[in-house]
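Tutorial handout. Part one gives the primary structure; part two gives the three-dimensional structure as tokens.
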Amino acid sequence: MQNENLAANQDTLEELPEILMRIVSELHDVAYLIERVEPHLLELGGPKVLEHPDSLKVLQGIDLAVQKARGLAEFVDTITATIPPDWMIDMTTALSLVKLADMQKALGAGLRHGHSQPLVKAAGDFDFF
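Part two.
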């Protein structure tokens, strides 16, 4: 019985370093998407937007969010280099908790190149919970 469970489980096991690198890719995507917001806010607010203290706080918050996302990506990337490639985990449960279909696909399918989020969607297109 244990051997049957182990054999069935082997099909869903993936290398931990590979999974972590997909997370790194997603974090870089998040930073890029957040970073794209700032110029649009400045454009919408006009030249006087920088005179308002609350606007400055929002823009600083955007910069901080980008820095944190990139910092987390670099941290995970660095520790991933020290993890043996034979460390395997089953991601089935974790993937079932990810609600965004594009992110779930990117994390589960092994995509690591380019952006997982479409960058040319028409305005108004979004995933609603």
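Part three, for discussion. The chain is about 65% helix and 5% strand. The longest helix spans residues 53-80.
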